């Protein structure tokens, strides 16, 4: 079982806290000869596999590193265009590491804002007045769980679909937020949470949830 990440979104839709707790490694590194037997295309300022799957490399995986050096979006570590570099026979054989693209800070901010809007749409579409909005979204690889407080703060947890006790965990995170963020005299409401005690207690709560499931009385 695993808890992947935690997001805290303020009532205006701004991301005020994010923690990547566990990210499954799915990187694949292979050495290729010319010509490259994968079709690569630029997409959202990175180079991804558009066609051809082999040895754990999947369509949608991004080029993460070339010859052991991390790439910077569409450019190699020394500033060369990735597609031009891989199109030159003189650069082969070449070692390429593929994997799932890591979200940037700006992308996380954008996704939090999008979820806030989706949450509002879900509330408005409800046939009943006073809908609580989206509480869970399920896919084959993860579940998104959301708990919104009376003041509009949203706590979002992404976890393995088999992970138990997430409802209790969400309320535990709310307690930690109340104890270590709201009671911090240096914290301003609706602003990013930068508190070491909040970080420490949140990480501890995630570890307990992964190992023991639901929180018991007095936890």
Automatic annotation (TrEMBL):
Signal peptide (from-to): none
Subcellular location field: Endoplasmic reticulum; Golgi apparatus, cis-Golgi network; Golgi apparatus membrane; Postsynaptic cell membrane
Gene Ontology CC annotations of this record: endoplasmic reticulum; Golgi membrane; postsynaptic membrane; TRAPP complex; vesicle
Keywords, sorted A to Z: Cell membrane, Endoplasmic reticulum, ER-Golgi transport, Golgi apparatus, Membrane, Postsynaptic cell membrane, Synapse, Transport
InterPro entries, per the entry: Longin-like_dom_sf, TRAPPC
Function, as annotated: Core component of the TRAPP complexes which has a function of guanine nucleotide exchange factor activity for Rab1 GTPase. Plays a role in vesicular transport from endoplasmic reticulum to Golgi and autophagy. May play a role in dendrite postsynaptic membrane trafficking.
Protein name as it appears in the record: Trafficking protein particle complex subunit
Organism in which the protein naturally occurs: Circaetus pectoralis (black-chested snake-eagle)
Taxonomy of the source species: Eukaryota, Metazoa, Chordata, Craniata, Vertebrata
């Amino acid at each position: 079982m695993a808890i992947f990440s935690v997001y805290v979104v303020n009532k205006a839709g701004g991301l005020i806290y994010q923690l990547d707790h566990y990210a499954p490694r799915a990187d694949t590194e292979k050495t290729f000869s010319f010509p490259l037997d994968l079709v690569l295309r630029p997409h959202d300022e990175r180079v991804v596999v558009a066609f051809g799957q082999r040895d754990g490399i999947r369509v949608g995986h991004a080029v993460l590193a070339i010859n052991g050096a991390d790439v910077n979006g569409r450019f190699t570590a020394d500033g060369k265009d990735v597609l031009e570099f891989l199109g030159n026979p003189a650069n082969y054989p070449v070692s390429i590491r593929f994997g799932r693209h890591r979200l940037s800070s700006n992308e996380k901010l954008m996704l939090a804002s999008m979820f806030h809007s989706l949450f509002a749409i879900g509330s408005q579409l409800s046939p009943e007045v006073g809908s609580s909005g989206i509480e869970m979204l399920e896919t084959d690889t993860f579940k998104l769980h959301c708990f919104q407080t009376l003041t509009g703060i949203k706590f979002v947890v992404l976890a393995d679909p088999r992970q138990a006790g997430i409802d209790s965990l969400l309320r535990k995170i709310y307690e930690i937020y109340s104890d270590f963020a709201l009671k911090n005299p240096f914290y301003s409401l609706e602003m990013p949470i930068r508190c070491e005690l909040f970080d420490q207690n949140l990480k501890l709560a995630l570890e307990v949830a992964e190992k023991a499931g639901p929180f018991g009385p007095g936890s």
